[in-house]
Amino acid sequence: MTAAVVERWAGLGSAVAPLIFLWSVVQNYVPPTFRLYLTTWAAKLAACFNPYLEITISEYGAERFQRSDFFLAVEAYLSDACARRARKLKAELGKDSKNLRVSVDDHEEVTDDFSGITIWWYASKRQSKANVISLYPGGDERRFYRLVFHRRHRELVVDSYLPFVLGEGRAVTLKNRQRRLFTNNASGSWNPYQGKSVWSHVPFEHPATFDTLAMHPDEKEAVIDDLMAFQESKEYYAKVGKAWKRGYLLYGPPGTGKSTMIAAMANFLDYDVYDLELTAVKNNTELRKLFIETTGKSIIIIEDIDCSVDFTGKRRKDKKASSDKDSDNDDKPKLPIEPEKDDATKVTLSGLLNFIDGLWSACGGERIIIFTTNHKEKLDPALIRRGRMDKHIEMSYCHFEGFKVLAKNYLDVIEHELFGEVQRLLEETDMSPADVAENLMPMSKKKKRDPDVCLIGLIEAIKQTKEEAAAAKVKEAEVAQAKKAKEKEETEVKKGKEEDQEKDKAPEAANGDIKQGHK
Ligand SMILES: Nc1ncnc2c1ncn2[C@@H]1O[C@H](COP(=O)(O)OP(=O)(O)OP(=O)(O)O)[C@@H](O)[C@H]1O
Ligand SMILES: [Mg+2]
Question: In 51-161, which ranges are continuous DSSP H helix?
Answer without folding.
Answer: 69-77, 154-155
